[in-house]
């Protein structure tokens, strides 16, 4: 009975997590498009996100874990692809010869794991690296905010959702598979996402324009003359 209740609650959390991730990166994508600038966003951080999300998606898929326990990964990954395109575009890096070569190698590896051409055991060795990858990516975000002394390019909504979904995933993964590698990854991700959120909130408050006080009108002294 308790197991059934836990599983049902985990399914509800999984559904809410997936729904909240549908627009996780949208605020940042819209900001980049509006400003036509990717200032403060590091390509290295985005590459680490792409590789981390890809490995986690493939690991769960090849191990036949419940789709509801990891569906947010491919959903977020699609959004990161779009965001990465605009970052490269506004950093004027799309013309680089490394872009098509890296893209071809990346998608060839993805297809290889999905079709079984590449052994899934490789992913088991790569999953532990997702935790430091995710960590370095988030530390890079924090570094960028502190270096620029500005968090305007950071969407608080994105990071609130990130913290919430990571917390939810700790519970759902524990109920579904209790996979230690996945639990550790979500725990570290929760802590670091909270750190990014806290840093962004701090610098948004520091850089928010202060209301200018209204100048006081000088009182006109009235002079009374007695005749």
Automatic annotation (TrEMBL):
It is found in: Membrane. Gene3D superfamilies: 1.20.1280.290. One of its GO terms (cellular component) is membrane. It comes from the Eukaryota. The chain crosses the membrane at residues 12-32, 41-61, 67-87, 99-119, 125-146, 153-171, 183-203. Residues 208-227 are annotated as: Disordered. Signal peptide: none annotated. Keywords: Membrane, Transmembrane, Transmembrane helix. It is a multi-pass membrane protein. This is SFRICE_022048. It comes from Spodoptera frugiperda. The gene is LOC118261882.
